[in-house]
Design a protein that fits this description.
This protein is mainly α. The protein is about 75% helix and about 0% strand.
Length: about 140
């Protein structure tokens, strides 16, 4: 992710310098930066999910007993797994539809953008399956938070 961010920053900075300093620009930098930004966003979502750092509202869940919190976590993780399925399915369809569309300047297939959603959805689904198994084990063993 650091390499993607560094590449994006260098491309945009170079383009700004060329545009304002020399009244010229490199057209490919805009397309490549856009693709890199999409990939950075989706990979960041996977890393944030893995580290359990997404925004969470705990007003109601904090008032529940530990066992009920686990059951609620099981329910929400199951719903999130369904959302990942929809994301992977939709991204795959869009990837296939747009794979033959070529970006005008860079020549990169636009389907590559949707591949980021497919990969991120699959990784988050995998992390959810692992978390669901852990939560079910904790419920069965009566562990608390």
């Amino acid at each position: 992710m650091v390499a993607i961010l560094a590449t994006m920053s260098c491309l945009v900075f170079l383009n700004v310098i060329l545009r304002y300093g020399f009244n010229s620009s490199i057209n490919i930098t805009e397309e490549v930066s856009r693709y890199l930004f999409v990939w950075l966003t989706f990979l960041g979502a996977v890393l944030a999910f893995n580290a359990n750092q997404h925004v969470r509202v705990t007003i109601l869940t904090a008032r529940l007993s530990p066992k009920k919190q686990r059951v609620l976590q099981l329910l929400t993780d199951t719903l999130m797994l369904f959302c990942c399925y929809l994301m992977v399915q939709g991204s795959f369809v869009q990837f296939q539809l747009n794979l033959d569309n070529i970006a005008p300047i860079s020549g990169i297939p636009t389907g590559i953008t949707y591949l980021a959603g497919l990969i991120a959805g699959a990784f988050i689904a995998l992390l959810l399956i692992i978390r669901l198994g852990s939560t079910m084990r904790q419920i069965m063993q009566g562990e608390t938070l």
